[in-house]
Amino acid sequence: MSDSRVPRRRRFLVCEPRHFAVQYAINPWMHPDTHVDVDLAQEQWQALIGAYRSHGHAVDALDPVPGLPDMVFAANSAVVVGGRVFGSLFHAPERRPESTHYDLWFKTAGYEVHRPASVCEGEGDLVWTGRYVLAGTGFRTTREAHREVQEFFGHPVISLTLVDPHFYHLDTALFVLDDSEGENNIVYYPEAFSPGSREVLARLYPRAVLATRNDAMAFGLNSVSDGRHVFIAPQAEALAARLDDHGYVPVPVDLSEFHKAGGGIKCCTQEIRS
Q1: Of 169, 229, 259, 268, which residue is the catalytic one?
Q2: Checking DSSP bridges between strand 229-232 and strand 185-188, what pairing results, if any?
Q3: I need a labelling partner for 192 at 20 to 30 A (CA). Which of 66, 174, 251, 262 fits?
Q4: DSSP sequence for 2-34
Q5: Terminal CA-to-CA distance of the chain, rounded, Å?
Q6: What is the DSSP string of 178-196?
Q7: Is 182 exposed, middle or buried (0-12, 13-18, 19+ CB in 10 A)?
Q8: Edge-to-edge strands, sheet with 224-225
Q9: Residue 169 annotated as catalytic
Q10: What's the CA gap between 253 and 273, in Å, rounded?
Q11: CA nearest 205: which of 130, 123, 138, 122?
């Protein structure tokens, strides 16, 4: 079945983890006394970039800034749909300066950037499905920002409430497998969501691949798919096997050093959709 899955070339924006560290705690994964092996983080990050490029994807990078250890988590900086950029306004004061640097990169590349009026953490909580935006709230991005996103893009925005602090961003509990018209589908961990949100997802995606808590705690939902290949944490073995059963090709990439800050593959990857 995997031969019938067609990958689509993607363009990603990333930021080198030169200054990556755990210096504060803004989610349950972060403990400031945790030692971060920066050399290992660099090695793992380079392996991710290599995996993307070897599968035909374009990768752009912006320079990291000293004093902004979470800048490596590029996904949180914006969401880009149809060449339009909706920027970020971070919940944590420690991360707010990141937005300026990402905005400047987009503007220098010729994009106009909309700055949100409400707390909004980019692709961390805003997931483009090819039809509409699935939007997480409960811990970071606000419902007011969801309304702002809909007004800006003119695409329907479907609000989903996250209830488990381990899955504080939508991209830790859900990812899109395929955003093409015919095959639009997702993977998600149901218990990360409120009962009503679970019902919404079940109605929208009756064929969705469901993940277990073990999958989610291994950052298996913080994955990136090109429609055929799924770049996934190797620790999420059971989920990788299910994806294989559904005709997708898992591409294991170990970003375990970034798990110490509550991030993984998707967190490090901003998609630029022209």
Answers
A1: 169
A2: unpaired
A3: 251
A4: GGG------EEEEE--TT----S-SSTT--TT-
A5: 29
A6: E-STTT-EEEE-GGGB-HH
A7: exposed
A8: 224-225, 229-232, 249-252
A9: yes
A10: 23
A11: 130
pLDDT digits (tens, 9 = 90+) for 200-249: 999 999 999 999 999 999 999 999 999 999 999 999 999 999 999 999 99
Q: Which of 124, 120, 116, 153 is nearest to 269 (CA)?
A: 124
Closest to 171 in 3D by CA, of 270, 274, 48, 56: 270
Q: Is 267 a catalytic residue?
A: yes
Q: Which of 57, 229, 259, 267 is catalytic?
A: 267
Residue 182 pLDDT greater than 80, yes or no: no
**Residues present in the chain in total:** 274
What is the C-alpha radius of gyration for the chain, rounded to an integer number of angstroms?
A: 17
Buried b (16+ CB within 10 A) or exposed e, 129-152: beebbbbbbbbbbbeebbebbbeb
